[in-house]
């Protein structure tokens, strides 16, 4: 082996860590103001090669956008909290296989927890991009739980119509109905019950939705849908087929506008007099 080759045998620890990044298209503002003279191969030393590699890494870093898990979390939060244009752009730049670092949730969870307008449009975008409808988070919960927890009536209806099971139970043996009641979203609780959410299922702590509603002096409505399995094993039965059919169905209703959703403290309200709740 030549002396140049031997001098160039540097360990991985000698170089800066390289994070996973994606290239960007605009490099017009990138400046390199300390270019090194390029040594010839016959005179190159290990120090020369090391300096050139450092320079190459610096230039490469300047032309890349950070795509590490922590920075991905910003995209999730934009989908949940940003305006509609920002949220759509964030989704378009993401992969549906990504998970938020906190609870291992995909983007549909963050759309379900959204309190601003456009959640249904964003949910359709997730489905069109191939989101996995059968996923649960680290607590064993589904996007329906988060829609119920946040009082997002629009997303509760969307997810149930998409095929999410109303009585799916998390690791604490709770259903989405528990979270609607716990957080005071009784209109959402009523809708879930009308869609066959069971008031008799018992959580690990021994509570039932019926007892919780009684504590709040709230009378549950009658069921408007047929009986549903109280402990289903699937989040969204036939998810792949449902996803394809839904996209076909939506394609025929693209001109229809989604109801406006506004923020009123902790509640998501549809801007329609039929759905507004008095304080």
UniProtKB/TrEMBL annotation:
Cited InterPro entries: Ankyrin_rpt, Ankyrin_rpt-contain_sf
Residue ranges, compositional bias (Basic and acidic residues): 261-279
Name of the protein in its database record: Ankyrin-2
Task: List the Gene3D superfamilies hit by this protein, alphabetically.
Answer: Ankyrin repeat-containing domain
Segments annotated as ANK repeats: 139-171
Where is the region Disordered? 252-279
Ordered alphabetically, the record's keywords are:
ANK repeat, Repeat
Recorded superkingdom: Eukaryota
Query: What gene name does this entry carry?
Result: ANK2
